[in-house]
Each structure stands twice: as C-alpha cells, then as structure tokens.
Amino acid sequence: MSSLLEIRGKAYVLSDAKLIELQQLAAQSIGTRDLLRQRGLVLEQTQLIRELQLLQQHIEQLEQEIKTIVEQAREGKILASMGIGLIQVATIIATIGNIENFPNAGSLKSHFGWAPAVAQSGKTLDWTGQTRGGLRTIKQMMFLVVAHVIKQDTQWALLYHRLVEKRCPYDERRGVRVGRLRVFGRVAGQMIETMYALLKLDAEVLSNVPNGQEPPAPTLYDPDVHRRHREGHYQPLKSSPRKASITLLPPILSE
C-alpha cells in the first residue's frame, strides 16, 4: 500500500479506499501461481524494460543531435527566434524543404493545413473555417506551437487575447468564450506568413552572395519590430537594412 501511495503522489485521482480495492482486484485477477511461469514472466519483463530504456536513450541522443544541427542552421536560427522549440523547428524545416518550392505565403499555409476556407453563396451561406488539406502532422504541431506562444509574453499572445475578446462571444451557460479555434487559426496563419517572409528573404540574400564569400547573418524575428508594426508603423521587409534581429512583417500581417 505504501508503494501505491508513493506512486499516486499529491495528485489524488484515486482515494485510499479505491487504491485498496485496486490492490484486491489485482491480487485476484492478475498473475499466476505457477513458479515456472512466474520465472518466465519476470525474465520477459526485465528484457522489455531494458529494451524500453535503450530506446529512450536512443531518442534522447537523436533529439540532442537534432538540436545541435538546428542551432547551427540558418533556417533553425530564424525559426527559433520566433519562440519555437528546436525539435518543432526541425519538423518545420523538414516539412518545408526548400522555401523556393512555395511561390507565396498562402501556398505554405495550405501545405501546413492552416489556410482559411471561406464559403459564401451571396444569400444565406456565410462560413469561414480551416482548410481540410495539408499535412496532418505539421498541422497538429502548429497547433501546439500556437498553444505554447500564446502562454508566453509574446506579440502572438497579445494578438490572440485581443482577438478572443473582440471576436469570441461569451457563453453564459458554459462560462467560456466560443470560437477560439478560429483565432488559433489566425495566429497560426500569421506565424506561417512570418516564417515564409523571413526564410524567403534569407534565400534571396544567399542567392546574391558570391562564391567563397561569407554570407551575412540571417535576419531574425524581432518582437519590438512586430509590436511597432502592429501599432501601424509598417515598413516593407525588403527595404529594411539586412541586419540580424531586425524583422519587419509582410503587409498581409497587418490587422
């Protein structure tokens, strides 16, 4: 019983009475009294635990190697400056491949599964949602990215909370604001547009660097420039000085 209490910890999902009941049911329904069978089960369990530990070590080693590569890559530095985790950055880079494969930010959003879908009949039908296309893995990952950045002190969080207050009506019965997924889509779309603008700019910079010459540092996302942009002080990205940590968002991000 003491072991069960220790495993349960401070999260009282099960009461003491339920733990006792669980212990009794386990004693009656799990296991075998055959000594040879018991020995075989213990051996098998030991081997499975060691295999699991080995797999966990391999995963940790691979993740560390991925993080090291991402930290050194230009694309990794650009995306990580937006507050995205290194493993998620690696997933995004692997999904995009070469940014030149996408003619505009809209095509990249469609590839990610976060492009808006609008249906209008001109009379009674007026519906806006997310496209059903895109890669499921990257679409789910972008949802987690947005869920992370809106909990931090970021411009994305300010945008999210402002739009929730403005566009999500309050449901008195449920005590929550409804329609927040659309705002999620808006934030995800703007983040993808920013990724596209920064990666596209960096690709153009690299294409103009002569062979053998060291390229300049990549242009990173700058939250202060983002804030000034949201306040109406917009300047086209390509006309800005190409310095690291100075980023002006594309016109499509204006609110």
Automatic annotation (TrEMBL):
Domain Transposase IS116/IS110/IS902 C-terminal span(s) in chain numbering: 81-159
Keyword Glycosyltransferase among record annotations: no
The organism's place on the tree of life at top rank: Bacteria
Lineage of the species this protein comes from: Bacteria, Bacillati, Chloroflexota, Ktedonobacteria, Ktedonobacterales
Keyword Coiled coil assigned: yes
Coiled coil start-end: 45-79
Annotated keywords: Coiled coil
Entry-linked InterPro entries: Transpos_IS110, Transposase_20
Protein name from the UniProt record: Transposase IS116/IS110/IS902 C-terminal domain-containing protein
